[in-house]
């Protein structure tokens, strides 16, 4: 089984993010669609979640927030204990949808699972503070 760091080295994801940086959203979306299909065919749930999350980033950049939310939610379902995904989606709930109570519940569930990772704790408490 591959380690998650090896999955993160997907050239497809890196290229898609490079295209997003260049604001070439259509090209990025094509790459993500291809990579997502490959990850799903391989039944690699973590890589599939990473592609869903990348789709979330793409649609957030395009200011299509409901689509972004949909993809972040799909990623969270595949990796339910990943603090990064919870924090990203909670931030979207606060900043875009005004769903403060939902964001607070999401952060209260994930904070105990973060442990002593100060980076994630800082982000989670930041989102909590914004939501409160």
Query: Total strand count, please?
Result: 0
Q: Which descriptor suits the 3D outline? A: globular
Q: What Rg, in angstroms, do the CA atoms define?
A: 15 Å
Q: Give unreliable regions as ranges.
A: 1-5
Short structural summary:
This protein has helices spanning 4-8, 11-21, 25-41, 45-61, 65-78, 83-97, 100-114, 118-131. The protein has 132 residues and is mostly helical.
Describe this structure in words.
The protein is mainly α and 132 residues long. Helices cover 82% and strands 0% of the residues. It has helices at 4-8, 11-21, 25-41, 45-61, 65-78, 83-97, 100-114, 118-131.
Task: Indicate the topology.
Blueprint: H1 4-8, H2 11-21, H3 25-41, H4 45-61, H5 65-78, H6 83-97, H7 100-114, H8 118-131
Helix pairs in contact: 2-3, 2-4, 3-4, 4-5, 5-6, 6-7, 6-8, 7-8
